[in-house]
Amino acid sequence: MSEQVLKKQIVIYSDDSSVRATIVSALGRRTAVDLPEHAIHEFATGAGLRAFVDDRSQIDLFILDGESAPEGGLGIARQLKDEVFNCPPVLVITGRVQDSWLAAWSLAEASVIHPIDPFTLAHSAAQLLRGHNLTSA
After folding, report:
1. What would the CATH number be for the domain defined by 3-129?
2. What is the pTM of this model?
3. From CA 130, how far away is CA 43, in angstroms rounded?
4. N or C: which end of the chain has fewer CB within 10 A?
């Protein structure tokens, strides 16, 4: 079995490279000591993310930036939930606490807000990777 298969597969979407870098930094090599290391797949476009999902069978977690443009992560989250059979958990990043209703509409299992708190993001990601559904963080 290849090393890539043993790792958790995390997909990150944001049109902003600094947001993607912040997420990658917050996740580190593993989200928690009881979880295996992960492989991160970064995407700046919705089209790139969808092409990856269409060609890939194993994804363990999506982390999507709701503030991305022109295609927001909340709409992509909803599309994934509607179209991907047994869709993996989705964590969305919203611009404000008041956007929690949008996170709920997107069918995401968890949400965090900008600016990203690394500890909150890593904890939420770890919980989802363990199979726990969360309410908005």
Report:
1. 3.40.50.2300
2. 0.92
3. 24
4. N
Do 93 and 19 form a contact (C-beta atoms < 8 A)?
Answer: yes
Task: Check: CB of residue 77 under 8 Å from CB of residue 86.
Answer: no
Closest CA relative to residue 96, chosen from 61, 76, 66? 66
Give the C-alpha separation, 8 to 50, whole Å: 19
Please state, in angstroms and rounded to a whole number, the distance separating the CA atoms of residues 89 and 133: 8
125 exposure class (CB count in 10 Å sphere: 0-12, 13-18, 19+): buried
Summarised one tens digit per residue, pLDDT across range 35-67 is: 999 999 999 999 999 999 998 778 999 999 999
pLDDT for the residue 7? 92
Domain ranges of the chain: 3-129
Q: Is the peptide bond before 118 cis (omega within 30 degrees of 0)?
A: no
Encoded amino acid at 14, one letter: S
